[in-house]
């Protein structure tokens, strides 16, 4: 299975995000949305760097295509992904539904397509690299506006990107619930064992006291 180098993507009209997708959980979604507000309105490709991640944007004809990637993804794969998404999105919605769609209203229709494109680009890095060279995207990427997010968002200090796999969180929660049940059962058995031992000791003490008072087993004589 390919390393998950692409972690979040969306398509927006202006500053309205129409569809997005991620398998992860973290603050990268809000940071990506904040950067969207700062993008130039003209057609452009922009990359923002932050804490080992890149926020890649393709702005064209009023629509913005974004993907958040880890640094190890390089430049070609995120940009190739954006081009693929742009072509697919325009083929489906060009001049139609996307022009009036509400925020997140295309998630059901196009969210799975974002996932498919992300997975394809991650699974076929060599093919993507070759296509990038054939299409002369390498030279284009070198001319992309690259800035640091701290500067763009006018933040003081370093922004830390938090990324957690949602599936892992769910499995961890399930594991903790299972472990919690096992621990509770174990504690119950331990408590019962202690109670039985204490009860046995009390009974033994009572017998010892009775036998000592009666002089052995001749109490009734």
Specify the number of helices: 7
Regions with pLDDT < 50 over 5+ consecutive residues? Answer: none
Q: What are the secondary-structure elements, in order, as H or E?
A: EEEHEEEHHHHEHEH
CA radius of gyration:
31 Å
Shape: rod-shaped
Report how far apart the termini are.
Answer: 86 Å
Helix content percent band: 40-55%
What is the SS-derived class?
Answer: alpha+beta
Largest sheet, spatial ordering of strands: 2-1-6-5-4-7
Strand content: 15-25%
Average residue-wise pLDDT: 81
Task: Report the strand count.
Answer: 8
The description of the largest β-sheet is: 6 strands, mixed
Observed structural traits:
52% helix, two-stranded antiparallel ribbon, rod-shaped, alpha+beta, 221 residues
Q: Can you offer a commentary on this structure?
A:
This protein has 221 residues and is α+β, with helices and mostly antiparallel strands. The protein is 52% helix and 22% strand. The chain contains 7 helices and 8 strands, in the order E-E-E-H-E-E-E-H-H-H-H-E-H-E-H. The strands form 2 sheets. A 6-stranded mixed beta sheet has the order 2-1-6-5-4-7, with helices on both faces. A two-stranded antiparallel ribbon has the order 3-8. Helix 2 packs antiparallel against helix 3. The mean pLDDT is 81.
